[in-house]
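Per your request, structure below.
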C-alpha cells in the first residue's frame, strides 16, 4: 500500500467529493475575494469551500485564509 492509500485508510480522514454545492460556494468565495481585491490561489479557495461546506475547522500556516468570511480557521 502506498502513502496516499495508507493516508486515506485512516479513520480520521474523510474524502470529500466536489459537489454542485461546493462549486457554488467556491464561486461565491472567489467573487467576494475578487470584489475585496484580495484574491487567493484557486486551490486554497477549493479547500475553504470544502471546509465551510463540511463544517470543518481549517488549520493552516497560510494567513490569507483569514480573508474568507464564514471560514472557521486557525493559524498554526
Amino acid at each position: 500500500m502506498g502513502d496516499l492509500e495508507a493516508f486515506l485508510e485512516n479513520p480520521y480522514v474523510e474524502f470529500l467529493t466536489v459537489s454542485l454545492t461546493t462549486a457554488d460556494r467556491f464561486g461565491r468565495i472567489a467573487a467576494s475575494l475578487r470584489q475585496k481585491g484580495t484574491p487567493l490561489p484557486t486551490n486554497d479557495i477549493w479547500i475553504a469551500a470544502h471546509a465551510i461546506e463540511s463544517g470543518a475547522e481549517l488549520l493552516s500556516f497560510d494567513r490569507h485564509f483569514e480573508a474568507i468570511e464564514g471560514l472557521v480557521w486557525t493559524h498554526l
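Residues 20-75 form a domain with the Rossmann fold fold (CATH 3.40.50.1010).

Regards,
D.
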